[in-house]
Amino acid sequence: MNLGRRAGESAIKVSTLLTGVVILVLVITIAVLGWQWRAAANDIGAAAAAAADTANAEQVALDYATAAAEMNFQDLAAWRTRLVEGTSPELEARLTQAATSMEQIIVPLQWVSTAQPIAAKVHSEDNGVYSVDCFVSITTKNSQAPEGIQSTATYKLSIDRDSNWTITDIGGIGTPLGAGAPR
Fold first, then answer.
1. Which of 101, 112, 133, 171 might form a disulfide with 176, Cβ 3.0–4.6 angstroms?
2. Listing from the earlier edge strand, what are the strands of the sheet with 71-72?
3. Distance between CA 97 and CA 92 in Å, rounded?
4. Is residue 119 in a domain?
5. 44-96, pLDDT tens digit by residue?
6. Angle between helices 3-69 and 76-84 in degrees, nearest 10
7. Which pTM was predicted?
8. Range of the domain at 164
């Protein structure tokens, strides 16, 4: 019998087996760490995208509310344009109807309003539709208050990210614009 040779062959096989096991453990460890790193990177990317979308919804709301609050009885066409800019067709129709009614007050009072943005905050998001609360400081001068009146306008806007950030609904905080009006 050749015991020496068998023992040597077994030692080589055991060391080869141990080397293989170590390499396999290293490969599995690297794969698990790579998977975890990729998952973490995806989570960070998703959080950054969500934060960017939230900031964009807030900026769209604040820009719209500020522009819509600016009105001058001598240039109602510019105000009507700002009032419907970036809105859905359904909302545009409601706003156009509301503007026609408001003009009956704006012109006789010689109404001029200037606006400054205060803040906007996303209240909620559902399937790409953001509900944003928005606050605008308005100074209104008219024939009854020529020195001007300072006020804060509050708006709740619905903004659809998936429709190119289109504004789909506008109202005061707690009250949709045109509530009770025929649609």
1. 171
2. 71-72, 112-126, 129-142, 145-160, 166-172, 175-176
3. 9
4. yes
5. 888 899 999 999 999 999 999 999 999 999 999 999 999 999 999 999 999 99
6. 160
7. 0.74
8. 36-176
